[in-house]
Amino acid sequence: MIGSNPFVELSSLIPQSAMKTYVILMIIAVIVGVVLDLMHKKSATYFFQNAEKAEKSRTRDISDSEKFAIATQTLLVDVLTSGEFYNQERRMAHMLKMLGFITFMISTLVLIFSGDAPAFAAVTWHLGAMMVTAGGTWFWFTMRVNGSSEGQPWTSVVKGDAFVLSLIGTTFFGLVWSYLQSSGSSFAMLAFSLFLLSSTILFGGVRWSKFAHMFFKPAAAYQKRIAKADGSNENLPELGDLTDPELQKKFPDIPEYMGSNPPNMGLGIKREAPKHY
Predict the structure, then answer these.
(1) pTM of the full predicted structure?
(2) Are 59 and 230 in contact (CB under 8 A)?
(3) Which residues contact 66 (CB under 8 A, 6 or more apart)?
(4) Distance (Å, rounded) from C-alpha 233 to C-alpha 224?
(5) How far apart are CA 103 and CA 80, in angstroms?
(6) Distance between CA 102 and CA 98 in Å, rounded?
(7) Which of 56, 103, 256, 259 is the most buried if burial means most Cβ atoms within 10 Å?
(8) What is the phi/psi pair of residue 22, to 5°?
(9) Distance between CA 132 and CA 225 in Å, rounded?
(10) Cα–Cα distance, 213 to 211 (Å, whole number)
(11) CA-based angle 212:19:113, to the nearest 5?
């Protein structure tokens, strides 16, 4: 099963042109959804306005080589390895979903649009689907906020869960369909219908999901690193050493609310998991 292209056998029932048309429509839906989401939340407007303010308040110029190094660091740390997550389980689950989804989608394009798709594309399609399914179910049963922190059962579903459920459904039912089809089961088309429904909800619902942050987040992470490197510090004041007596004299709230040794305040909210429901 894992080495076979499930779309080849499907072409006996659904024309290849229809599959290509569907994929193109889903790509258009994603583009439109992302643009509408950015317009509604004004994320792009805020990003460019903030970057313009930072440009005016920078204290040093950054060379092209520094920018390239920062871009590389952003790609490796913030994007590919999800470095912003302190919870390592959450980080691993997110990486499984993200890297698996990228692998799954690229493989899908190769399998459908390539006249003679290489065998490894079918393997990566199945592996990508397995990664997303594993990461998604791990997240759903153990890390979802309304379950892990609010005590609600895993069967509790809200509108905001449409993204992760459709994501899991797309890859899970894709795997089930591929297996049933390769084994000649009469339930193969049922699994394919659920696979198609899940993917349509996933890509058609971009406007109402967190899908758009996949495109905005890397740019924001890069800009944050640039702001730190050029001294603009996201237009925030540089306080300096919080233990400095002169600084504490200028800002008496520091010792009053943070103690005489602020950098050693303890774990704070990281002391224990939020399970006080």
Answers:
(1) 0.77
(2) yes
(3) 229
(4) 8
(5) 12
(6) 6
(7) 103
(8) -60, -45
(9) 29
(10) 5
(11) 85
Pull the structure tokens for residue 39: 């317009």
Helix (H, G, I), strand (E, B) or coil at 116: coil
Structure tokens at 251: 């800002």
First to last CA, the chain: 45
Question: Tokens representing 163?
Answer: 């993204």
Residues counted in the chain: 277
User: Which two tokens mark 6?
Assistant: 């499930």
DSSP string, 257-277: HH-S-GGG---GGGSS-----
Q: What is the pLDDT of residues 150-180, one digit of tens each?
A: 667 767 777 778 888 999 999 999 999 999 9
3-state secondary structure of 255: helix
Each as own residue / partner, the long-range contacts of residues 71-75 (CB below 8 Å, 24 or more positions apart, any chain) are 71/222, 73/225, 74/218, 74/221, 74/222, 74/225, 75/218
From residue 275, how far is each of 143, 146, 163 by CA, in Å?
Answer: 12, 10, 24
Tokens encoding 155: 């069967």
Of all residues in the chain, the percent with pLDDT exceeding 70 is 88
